[in-house]
Recover the amino acids of this structure.
DNA sequence: ATCTACACCTGACCGC
DNA sequence: TGCGGTCAGGTGTAGA
């Protein structure tokens, strides 16, 4: 359930703590976290060892580390990694390390002396002259993982080279091949609203299924889908093509607002599973209006003097939460 | 081509 | 106490 805001919290943490770090020993405790790695653990270990981390990028729920092999001869300052200036001069390796948190993944940056986590699967030793740290990939349910993927160019709709990720430091027009099919997310300035609208009009799938499709819009998972639909007053089952242009814009706007707010509060957390790189939980759960609020009053209805209680309904083999008053199916859209 | 079904996982929780 | 069933659900792929 880490969605865009939670993954961005992790990305920022990595950008703050591991840029310029040189990767030393790589320890794979559980090969199942490398299911997508061609050649298995050996290939990952062989490739990563000795490389320097030069950038951390994200698109939707995918994170990736950009690497350089030429960092070895750099002079590393006392107690830290190399400078930004040095980093920008380094030539990129042709593969990035892609990380997906799946349902329960965490990326922690910790002192090697601290005890390892129960579900730690992979550990990268980060070497500095004084500072030694570990990048730990922890994942209880093993839906997440790490793997190398070759960088390929990214293009805009008009065919121009375009930064693959709005949030990377270097803003390179390169994306890991394995992430190239993922659409830009609603917080990406290059998000293509017209393409989003075209796809909406072409789809008879329920609107919630539509916005969960990472090929159409990325970063949205079950929690923020329900929150955005609540804000836009849309029923999850409404066929996408029957959502008006104004409602579609409202939905996109709602997803931006809810994710921006969640990011400002450090992400959503239901338990200790979703945390930043220092192991701390976010506070956004307190701000959720629909998700997880079965039986509680809809705050919008309450403010208007009505009483209606949020309901939980099965949809797409998972739970959906909505207000039965302000998120109804119009007559035309019934039957899904 | 489009869509559905399932595999991948662990742990918390619930009813018996 | 134990034990089976259910739920949490993102992503990729096999099959219809």
């Amino acid at each position: 359930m880490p969605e865009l805001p939670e993954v961005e919290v992790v990305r920022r943490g990595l950008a703050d703590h591991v840029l310029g770090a040189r990767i030393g020993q790589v320890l794979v405790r559980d090969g199942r976290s490398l299911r997508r790695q061609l050649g298995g653990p050996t290939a990952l270990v062989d490739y990563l060892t000795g490389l320097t981390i030069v950038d951390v990028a994200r698109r939707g729920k995918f994170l990736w580390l950009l690497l350089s092999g030429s960092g070895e001869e750099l002079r590393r300052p006392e107690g830290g990694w190399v400078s930004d200036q040095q980093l920008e001069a380094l030539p990129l390796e042709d593969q990035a390390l892609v990380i997906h948190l799946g349902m329960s993944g965490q990326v922690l940056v910790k002192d090697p002396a601290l005890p390892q986590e129960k579900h730690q699967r992979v550990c990268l030793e980060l070497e500095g002259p004084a500072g030694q740290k570990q990048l730990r990939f922890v994942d209880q349910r093993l839906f997440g993982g790490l793997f190398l993927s070759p960088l390929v160019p990214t293009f805009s709709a008009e065919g121009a080279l375009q930064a693959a990720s709005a949030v990377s430091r270097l803003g390179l027009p390169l994306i890991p091949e394995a992430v190239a099919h993922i659409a830009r997310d609603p917080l990406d300035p290059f998000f293509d609203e017209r393409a989003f609208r075209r796809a909406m009009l072409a789809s008879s799938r329920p609107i919630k299924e539509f916005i969960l499709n990472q090929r159409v819009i990325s970063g949205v998972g079950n929690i923020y889908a329900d929150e955005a639909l609540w804000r836009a007053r849309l029923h999850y089952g409404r066929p996408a093509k029957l959502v008006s242009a104004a409602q579609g814009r409202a939905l996109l706007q709602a997803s931006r607002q809810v994710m921006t707010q969640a990011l400002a509060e450090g992400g959503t957390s239901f338990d200790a599973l979703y945390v930043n790189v220092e192991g701390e939980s976010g506070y956004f759960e307190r701000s959720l209006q629909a998700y997880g609020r079965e039986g509680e009053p809809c705050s919008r209805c309450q403010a208007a003097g009505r009483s209606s209680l949020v309901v939980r309904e099965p949809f797409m083999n998972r739970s959906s939460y909505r207000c039965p008053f302000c998120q109804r199916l119009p007559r035309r859209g019934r039957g899904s």
Observations:
- The CA atoms of residues 130 and 318 of chain A lie 48 Å apart.
